[in-house]
Amino acid sequence: MTEGFDGRKRETLRRFAAVGAAAPFVGTASAADGDADTNETREAIRGYVPTTPGAHFSKLRDDLRLGTGEAQYHLRKLEESGAIESVKDADYRRFFPAGRFDETDKRALGYLRRDTPRGMILALLRDPDATGADLANALGVSRPTISAAAADLERAGLLDRTDGYALTEPERLLTLVVRYADSFDAEAVALADDAASLVRYDP
């Protein structure tokens, strides 16, 4: 069982390491960092972070099949070298390629990585007139759950509840969803596929 896990881990690391090796990051993992496994792990993280920006520690660790200490060590080294940066988001620490996103993008990506807020954002991008009841039905959650998530999105500056629910920066959110759809879920991919129909041209 361990041998099978190790094989899958190595395959996962190699896949993201290939992305990392081609990524326009500052600095690279070098022989001074340790052995080949260390370099491969470091490069895998360097490949993973720009393709899954805003991922929190546990997701990164699990997706790359790393141990907790192993992930912590390499993330710390990459932050120290200026290749990645992290921000605290409630109970999570989220990771981003350094210098790539402004603060609003980071907040938006953080909420897009949470199931209920992401579902609400996707639903409102499709139907800006959706009500709280519409959102609850679409997501299969309670109205209080929608209200709580809406309050969080409003505090983050991503939602206006003055008159119903209105996204404050729909173009920015749509751009992030389309660009990173594969790192979210099937609903995000479906919306990205329909993005052209969601853009309103008003000359």
Automatic annotation (TrEMBL):
Segments forming domain HVO-0163 N-terminal HTH: 39-109
Q: Sorted alphabetically, which Pfam families does this protein's record hold? A: HTH_HVO_0163_N, MarR_2
Q: Which SUPFAM superfamilies match?
A: Winged helix' DNA-binding domain
Specify the HTH marR-type domain's residue ranges: 121-163
Q: What is this protein called?
A: MarR family transcriptional regulator
Output the lineage of the source organism.
Answer: Archaea, Methanobacteriati, Methanobacteriota, Stenosarchaea group, Halobacteria
* One GO molecular-function entry: DNA-binding transcription factor activity
